[in-house]
């Protein structure tokens, strides 16, 4: 009975339609954005099961035509899945690094706002206009390198995500920087779309709001309209400054 069950399971697993259906299922798994890594191990488990059944059957001496070929097919599927899992893990790690680098740039800009603009304090890092930070490439590269990030990989990631401006050159190639007029000359900058990542109030407007809140509240006492009190003529002589 046991041999019959094993043989039936193998025949079902080695069925061409079954393999094709599982292949399509795996392709569907792999085509899902941002969900590949969680489902790939489950897909690998699905592939390992028929392989284990075939190996078990071979050990029991149950051999049917095309067993070796089917086993090779499943093994090929398993190797492809294992490669995909490793690649997805590497991509996930890279994504985390790039996201951390992006947040580092945001924090770096906001903590050094005094170093942007023509009246920059100390070394000028660039300028800020219309919620975009225009950073001198050498300054950004220096900051990223000092923080342990790859400038080239970070800029590529930012360009792919549309978080920096890109220039198209005459030969059709692209450059991860733009040209802007600054300090009476054309300069090349990394145009970082700060407004897409950091919502921050204008410091001047924020100061005005704070000052407004700190103003003493004017009280209208009886006989006072706009804050001035009318003194009768007969009382005017009693004023100390008269």
Task: Give a written overview of the molecule.
- The structure is a single chain.
- Helices cover 55% and strands 10% of the residues.
- It is of the alpha+beta class and 242 residues long.
- The strands form two sheets. Strands 1-2-6-5 form a four-stranded antiparallel β-sheet.
- The longest helix has 45 residues, at 67-111.
- The protein is elongated, with a radius of gyration of 35 Å.
- It starts with a helix and ends in a 6-residue tail after the last helix.
Summarize the model shown.
With 242 residues, the protein is α+β, with helices and mostly antiparallel strands. The chain has helices at 2-13, 16-31, 36-59, 67-111, 137-146, 151-160, 203-214, 233-236; strands at residues 126-129, 132-135, 167-168, 174-175, 178-182, 185-192.
Structure keywords:
single chain; 242 residues; alpha+beta; 4-stranded antiparallel β-sheet; two-stranded antiparallel ribbon; 8 helices; 6 strands; elongated
**Overall mean pLDDT:** 75
Question: How much of the residues is beta strand, in percent?
Answer: 5-15%
How far apart are the first and last residues' alpha carbons, in Å?
122 Å
Largest sheet: 4 strands, antiparallel
Order of helices and strands: HHHHEEHHEEEEHH
As a percent range, the share of helical residues equals 40-55%
Class based on secondary structure composition and strand pairing: alpha+beta
Give the helix tally.
Answer: 8
* Unreliable spans: 29-34, 217-227
List the strand order in the largest sheet: 1-2-6-5
Alpha carbon gyration radius: 35 Å
Count of extended strands? 6
Shape annotation: elongated
């Amino acid at each position: 009975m046991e041999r019959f069950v094993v043989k039936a399971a193998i025949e079902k697993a080695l069925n061409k339609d079954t393999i094709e259906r599982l292949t399509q299922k795996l392709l569907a798994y792999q085509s899902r954005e941002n969900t590949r890594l969680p489902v790939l191990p489950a897909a690998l488990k699905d592939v390992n099961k028929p392989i284990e059944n075939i190996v078990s059957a071979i050990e029991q001496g149950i051999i049917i035509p095309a067993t070796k070929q089917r086993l090779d097919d499943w093994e090929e599927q398993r190797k492809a899945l294992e490669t995909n899992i490793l690649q997805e893990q590497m991509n996930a790690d890279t994504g985390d690094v790039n996201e951390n680098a992006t947040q580092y740039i945001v924090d770096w800009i906001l903590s050094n706002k005094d170093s942007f603009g023509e009246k920059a304090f100390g070394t000028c890092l660039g300028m800020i206009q219309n919620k975009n930070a225009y950073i001198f490439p050498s300054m950004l590269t220096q900051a990223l390198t000092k923080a342990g990030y790859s400038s080239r990989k970070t800029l590529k990631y930012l360009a792919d995500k549309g978080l920096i401006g890109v220039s198209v050159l005459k030969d059709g190639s692209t450059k991860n920087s733009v040209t802007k007029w600054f300090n009476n000359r054309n300069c090349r900058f990394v145009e970082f779309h700060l407004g897409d990542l950091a919502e921050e109030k204008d410091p001047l407007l924020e100061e005005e709001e704070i000052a407004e809140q700190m103003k003493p509240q004017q009280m209208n006492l009886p006989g006072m309209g706009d804050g001035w009190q009318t003194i009768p003529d007969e009382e005017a002589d009693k004023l100390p400054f008269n």
